[in-house]
Amino acid sequence: MTESRSVEEEENMAFQRVVNAFLQYELQQTQWLKGKQNMFRLGPKELDRLCGEGEKSGVSLVVSHLQSIKQRINTNQQFLNTVTLPYEDLFPNQTKIDPQVTNAPTKITAYHDEMEKVKSTLRQIAREWSSYGAPERDQCFLPLLNELKERYPTPESRSGIRVLNPGGGLGRLAWEIARMGFVSQGNEFSFYMLITSNAILNKSKEQDGTTIYPWLHSFCNLLKSEDQLKGCSFPDELPSLPPGSDFSMSAGDFLEVYTEPNTWDCVVTSFFIDTAHNVIDYIECINNILVPGGVWINIGPLLYHWAEMPGEQSVELTFEQIVNVIKSFGMQIQEEKSKTYECIYNSNPNSMMNLVYSAEFFVAVKPKL
Amino acid sequence: MTESRSVEEEENMAFQRVVNAFLQYELQQTQWLKGKQNMFRLGPKELDRLCGEGEKSGVSLVVSHLQSIKQRINTNQQFLNTVTLPYEDLFPNQTKIDPQVTNAPTKITAYHDEMEKVKSTLRQIAREWSSYGAPERDQCFLPLLNELKERYPTPESRSGIRVLNPGGGLGRLAWEIARMGFVSQGNEFSFYMLITSNAILNKSKEQDGTTIYPWLHSFCNLLKSEDQLKGCSFPDELPSLPPGSDFSMSAGDFLEVYTEPNTWDCVVTSFFIDTAHNVIDYIECINNILVPGGVWINIGPLLYHWAEMPGEQSVELTFEQIVNVIKSFGMQIQEEKSKTYECIYNSNPNSMMNLVYSAEFFVAVKPKL
């Protein structure tokens, strides 16, 4: 290692760690599952208590459940391999992990939080691109899409309207906007999201053609064992678009990519502003890139992602302060549009526990010249 | 340190750590608050954006907000000192922490998770003993209390009915049961809860006579700054009972304390069974201590507390498996009583984020001889 790496080298390393984490999923989850065989510390009598009358023995019930999880971990890995496939040759020096040999030596061990991101990427697919996610999407995407519809009621006029969606995740919202006829661009920072959205947007051949298992990774808050094993097919809609559509995804830090003033007619954000180190910078950037008369439509809570992270700047404003900051840039909040929506985020639809957000929706308008 | 400590020594040390964490609250929270002055990394222009029109400057707004938090941390410490007061002389060798000198040297530094427990104890007071907690209590205590009422409709008959509430927390549920006329005992394992419930149950002189600030500790998901500063007075009802009442709290591990068969008419549990290393042991114990014909009334989710804790046994059953285990002990589930209740747990009532549980309610009856 040299003392100071170039930005490009740093980015390369970060990207390599992400690809590596995707490839180590099965290895690590199989190890985790072995730990779960703790359950077998139960005696045969206790195991038999787990099953209802007339069923097979508790031992075979547990064995077959763990076996089912193991198979599904393998299926998830097959999908994750297709996601990372285009990038494997980028790192010739990395020991290739053979997904068939689960205890193959690896050069880099994925950290716990990296593996958590792989697992949350699987859940994000369910949220954005499966029919399971439809209720969640309706809660937070519909208010945004309806606002666009109301503001630009004539579909023919939309091909001249440029809409940006920072924090674009797996691209579903930006794609929905493109489908309505707008010029639409999603922007995303996370490599986990970027390589996965690339696979979904560009390689999906068949509606619901791929199945993954996003809810394998927790034994908690389950009503039934089968809830943990549920498969999730995607994409619920093929991400193709009519000819002449203008849809793109951009990679990188929102603040660095979007510096050109007066370029976007609309900025649409969902569960995004609290990913900032300093939300004031985001607001300043949004105000800057909007054309005069342009609108910012937002929905989301204020779960600041950098709060309590040692050494990281984290400016945690209240919603009231955010409204003040927006106004201080000269933007007008359309108060009559402001509303609070209850939104669930990235849940197992059958879980006995859910995070429920009171997401604030608002529309802010940059004054005309 | 000797090579092997007696159980008593171990318990003593654990207890000392808890008292120590209570006493270090102000010291650690003040340090945390200093870190939050990160906010001041904002320039004066940015700070001024935080306030609305006609208000004072952003700098003075932030300064006075942080000052208000600091004062309230001190008030919380005053209360925590009264909680630990009876136990301070138990540890003559420990350096006494002077709450007035926030950077006084301390012998033991409280761990992060210990401090989290002190903060969650403050929130638990709001949940169990303040009017803020009434909606949460109604969600999960009322179904239990109503079931008791329905089963024992004549108040006069209740003085002969022995009701046990394991996982008793700060004693509110057990006290409510005692107030209805039952013989009532709460059992609790956590020293954090035990010393705090002792203070509330035995030293409260005046309704709403003490005020603490349970929601100081997060800047996230706030609508207004004042939501973070809200005070919470307690107890909303004086925990006195009419003469002749039979109410007690017991300390210790449920499985170790309750081994005498056929001794309780009712076991009432709320958000308890998922605190087990092995929930089958809890069910076996409950079945054992109930008199023939006795009932177990339960409400709660399955957020197993020991899941994913390295080296700890954690048997994570689904709700369906739990029902099977209960039946396997010969108990009958009264299916028509089973119901799912939406319950919030220990939230800031104004937070933009809430954990919502689908808590399963059921009644299980031990057969008569």
UniProtKB/TrEMBL annotation, chains A, B:
Stored InterPro entries: CARME, SAM-dependent_MTases_sf
GO biological process, any: methylation
Domain of life the protein comes from: Eukaryota
The organism of origin for this protein: Vannella robusta
Record-listed E.C. numbers: 2.1.1.22
Any one GO molecular-function label of the UniProt entry: carnosine N-methyltransferase activity
Broadest EC class assigned to this enzyme: transferase
Keyword entries, A-Z: Methyltransferase, S-adenosyl-L-methionine, Transferase
A UniProt-annotated Pfam family: CARME
Protein name, entry field: carnosine N-methyltransferase
Family: Belongs to the carnosine N-methyltransferase family.
